[in-house]
Write a structure and sequence with these properties.
Blueprint (H helix, E strand, L loop, with lengths): L1 E6 L2 E6 L3 E5 L8 E4 L2 E5 L5 E3 L8 E21 L4 E20 L2
Antiparallel strand pairs: 1-2, 1-5, 3-8, 4-7, 5-6, 7-8
């Protein structure tokens, strides 16, 4: 069984036991998160339920594993012939979660 969920404007296909990253939110490691915006559910038999836009009563439960940061992104501003150069970096924070249960009503 798998589900397609929507979180922070992106669609993610998840199975039970999958580990994936979502945008940062204020949670602690070990906490539980419930995703209630389920766009589609599929059984192991191949039967699918597509929501309009969401599947009523369906949810995906997940456990927070860790808070982490993405790869370093360098931002460089440069204007020629003026001596103007600026360089700074950024690391996007993420939350790693593991799917514990897919609930279909």
């Amino acid at each position: 069984m798998y589900a397609i969920i929507e979180d922070s404007g992106s669609q993610i296909k998840v199975n039970k036991g999958d580990v994936f990253e979502i945008d940062h939110r204020d949670v602690e490691p070990g906490a539980k998160i419930t995703f209630d915006r389920v766009l589609m559910l599929s059984d192991s038999d191949g039967d699918s339920t597509v929501g309009t836009p969401y599947v009523a009563g369906a949810s995906v439960s997940a456990k927070v594993l860790e808070l982490k940061k993405g790869a370093k992104i360098d931002v460089i501003k440069f204007k020629r012939r003026t001596g103007y150069r600026r360089k700074y970096g950024h690391r996007q924070p993420y939350v790693a979660v593991e799917v514990t249960d897919i609930n279909a009503k």
